[in-house]
Fold this sequence. Notes:
By secondary structure, this protein is mainly alpha-helical.
Amino acid sequence: MRESSRLDLCNCFAARQAARHITRLYEKHLTAAHVTSAQFSILVVLDEKRRASMSEMADALVMDRTTLLRAVKPLQRDGFVMAKRGDGDGDPRQVSFSLTAAGALNSKPQ
Length: 110
């Protein structure tokens, strides 16, 4: 029988460990689509919302904007996500993101 440890009683440690295991499982399966689990989550959010600002995506994904931007750039480069500056009455500094046809295909679970 294994001796128990203080780590066995720590809910925070257990939750982080479980999250890492789940992320590793998803990363393994998403490799074929050439996206990370964070990038897949971005695709799913944009599939649901159709168009979202950086702030809206950061809130939905509970992710800071810098990390989000690093994940979005490869999706733009690979043609899955497109960015559009605000037009009309909107703030021209505001950028909204949406899926391309290729991105919509990648956001669907297999």
